[in-house]
Amino acid sequence: MTASDADGSVDAARTVERPDGGTVESDEETEAVVETPLGPLVARLWPYRVPIGLFALVVFLRPVVAHPWFLGFEQIATTMLVWMLFVAAWNLLFGFTGLLSFGHAMFFGFGMYGVAIAMSRLDLPFLVGAVGGVVLAAVVGTLLGRLIVEKGEIYFAMLTLAVGQAVYFMVNRDPYGLTGGSNGLTGTTLPPWIETFRGEKTLTLLPEFANDFYYLVAAVFLLCMLALWQLLRSPFGQTLIAIRENEPLARAMGVDTTRYKIAAFTASSALAAVAGVLLELNDGAASLATFDVLTSGDAVLMAILGGVNYFFGPITGVFVWFGAEDYLTDFTLLQLPLAEYPLVTLDVSGILQFWRFGLGAIFVLVVLLSPKDGVYGLLRTGITRAYHRARGADE
């Protein structure tokens, strides 16, 4: 079975000597940074690169997307974090266990509707609805997993799609007036400690310097992603990767693969529901479209675009997806060579009004160049090779 890197890649790791005399599990990328002038410090921090990367993400994401040269508004950063958590939850099942689900939108919806129904229909506290939605998703994930995880890859994918569509039509029928049917749920769907003014949300329970809604989403995102990282580093996570790489061999070694796959399905479902809770708070409503098969399809495309074999792959995929969507929908004039000094101006609004056309072209290009590694894998490989070539040129 293949050894797994700390960030989830499956390149074979090697043990190298650290400058302080210790040893560290390393691949080519590790060796590259250890050999820099800051080698000792980098070697000490390298095992914690995932937590450091996640923290840097929540700190710099909003100013980056709000920059006028990029998207120009900061509200989309909160939506990005919610979707990053949802796609990472989906990738726990596919990227690290080998189970392709086309019905994960229902777990996303359970979290969203759990809060909305509790507050607008049952007059229950937010926490009851949030916990109820996550528990419902975990229970459904466990029961569904017991029924279908051993049906084979294509049958598992089709059965999750079928169950997801069945849930979609049930919600659309508005049972007992709980779900609002095709209109969804709006109105009193936000807890009283969240206030909205001109589209910006604040937390009334916290002092002014810490009452930004983005901080709440960032904190939940960090906790869930760190828990996911620890899960993947644990013997449980390594067993999931072993099942993905060679399930017959894992079974021959005495691993109860069915039990592990059910547990992975349950954890993935619960994490997706947590993302759904955050989405409900962010949108201030519950939408039927959340249960749509297109929501599951978007998660699949985002993860593959970013790179399903890497911990940061889904995060990269969501960032590229939302960035391309917003940029392409506003892109009307192509000015060459530079916008400041245009020599040729072309009106491309007729083509790029269908932003998915441009995003589809990017997706096809990435899949052709690197079908397994995605954008994150391409960047990682390119940076590592460029570094080694630069060092070779210096020497």
Quick description:
This protein is mainly alpha-helical. 63% of the residues lie in helices and 7% in strands.
3D structure, described in words:
- This protein has 395 residues and is mainly α.
- The protein is 63% helix and 7% strand.
- It contains 16 helices and 6 strands.
- It has helices spanning 28-34, 39-45, 49-66, 75-94, 105-120, 126-148, 153-172, 213-233, 235-245, 247-252, 257-283, 293-306, 313-330, 349-352, 355-369, 374-394, and strands at 14-17, 23-26, 194-197, 200-203, 333-337, 342-347.
- The strands form 3 sheets. Strands 1-2 form a two-stranded antiparallel sheet. Strands 3-4 form a two-stranded antiparallel ribbon.
- Helix 5 packs antiparallel against helix 6 and helix 12 packs parallel to helix 16 (374-394).
- The longest helix has 27 residues, at 257-283.
- The two termini are 37 Å apart.
- The model is unreliable at 10-27 (pLDDT under 50).
